[in-house]
Design goal:
The protein is α/β, with parallel strands linked by helices and 117 residues long. It is built from three helices and five strands; from the N terminus they run βαβαββαβ. The radius of gyration is 16 Å and the shape is elongated. The two termini are 20 Å apart.
Length: 117
């Protein structure tokens, strides 16, 4: 039996990217705390959250292959959180204008049956 493929995300952009592969999949938004841990590097945050999202969906889909993704932006070595509303998004964009912003991306492909990543 071929396991189902699940994208652990509510992102329209990630759904669009995966659709290009022309593979059958479903999307489920994981409900996880995306807070930054003290002394955590941005690449560590991105990887931890990608894994956390995949494992969260695996709880209710134990026979699936699950893709978890995350991206963390940094400005002057400071992690930028999700703006959460229009006012904060506008403020963040103004702060970034003309400056170097680095994005740290992570992807986790999790086999819920075996626990392998």
């Amino acid at each position: 039996m071929i396991p189902s493929l699940i994208l652990a995300s509510s992102s329209i952009y990630r759904r669009e990217l995966l659709t290009r592969l022309q593979l059958p999949f479903s999307c489920i938004a994981p409900d996880v705390d995306e807070g930054i841990l003290a002394n955590e590097l941005p690449q560590e945050t991105a990887l931890r959250l990608a894994q956390l999202k995949a494992k969260k969906i695996a709880i209710s889909h134990p026979n699936a292959l699950i893709i978890g993704c995350d991206q963390v932006a940094t400005l002057d070595n400071t992690q930028l959180g999700k703006p959460m509303n229009h006012v904060n998004a506008t403020q963040q964009l103004r702060m970034m204008r003309g400056r170097e912003v680095i994005f740290h991306s992570a992807l986790c492909l999790y086999n819920a049956t075996t626990g392998n990543m």
